[in-house]
Amino acid sequence: MKITPIEVDGYEKVARAEDPASGLVAYISVHNTTLGPALGGMRLWNYAHEEDALTDVLRLSRGMTFKSAVARTGLGGGKSVIVADASQKSDALFKAMGAFIESFGGKYITAEDVNIGIPDLLSVRTQTNYVTGLPRDMGGSGNPSPYTALGCFEGVKAAAIEAWGSDDLRGKVVALQGAGNVGIVLGKHLVDCGAKIVVADVNASNVAKACDELSAEAVDVDAIYDVDCDIYAPCALGATLNDETIPRLKCKVVAGAANNQLKDEVRHGNMITERGIVYAPDYVINAGGIINVSLEAEPGGYNEEAAVLRIKNIYHALQSIFETARERSITTHAAAQAVAEANLAEAAATA
Ligand code: NAD
Prior knowledge:
The chain is built from twelve helices and 13 strands. By secondary structure, the protein is α/β, with parallel strands linked by helices. Strand 12, helix 7 and strand 13 (278-279) form a beta-alpha-beta unit. The chain starts with a strand and ends with a helix. The site of nicotinamide-adenine-dinucleotide (NAD) has 24 residues, from helix 4 and helix 5.
């Protein structure tokens, strides 16, 4: 396997691996380890151009630094991507990826991300110990999605307080974009509190599941932005807050699990604020999964009770971000960034 280091300004360690024997072409990016080893999932994606994979891994690993800094997980930010189609998955490919991860000597710790399943992680695990998110019976913390959903639910309540002065969600209409692993569980929490769900998903069976389990009303994929609702919960893709969609939103709150919701962090963060919409910054509200997995590193190992307590703290973390944004007249995204940077600076000063 050929491992080539790549110098990137502002990043601690980035490398590309190529292993002709297994067909592996992959990147690992360690953005920042001030707060601890860089933990972030492994994504497998059929990128149209290889440079898109590098752009993606850099953007995602930087996001993980800020997510973990706000959530105080004791972890830094990293990510890995494999350039391949899902049909190219093989034991040999993931073993080669395991060797690539091992070459980082613990500076990067992996977990599941898009197109990666437990069998893939188990192949990786044969070559390196730096793997998290394995099933409970294998000593891991298990599937992070229900914990991400729990954190999002706490975040929706904090945003509701900011918008309406109460976190009573009875009768509130939620436009749920994406009823996948996180969206469906978030939907259940919301329905249990008396909210009504309007759903859109490109996957018809997930729409059917939401209609059945959440008594949701279904709308066309593009119509979700026009729904007359109180809360828009993006739980599918990134960049759905953009020039085209923001003017269409009829909600008072945007709070959901998707990563990188603002197409342009500054411009679209401003647009949302100018429309008087309360925006729960994505990497704060969706930190439940990383908080859950971070408990694997605690002395004594993973403890669900402790994880849930910390995840519920997302409610208070968001309240404090909303307060900072109000006091300083800045966007909630900028307020989150300020918290992340302050936590990083504090750790760097005491290192
Ligand atoms: P998932 O793949 O299980 O669900 C995503 C759902 O969105 C699927 O049902 C898919 O069909 C649907 N979808 C895709 N394109 C769509 C579109 N254009 N319109 C409507 N629906 C569409 O993923 P997930 O694990 O539920 O994660 C949801 C989002 O939250 C992702 O953006 C993910 O990156 C982010 N996230 C997830 C976790 C986690 O723990 N799973 C943690 C942090 C962030």
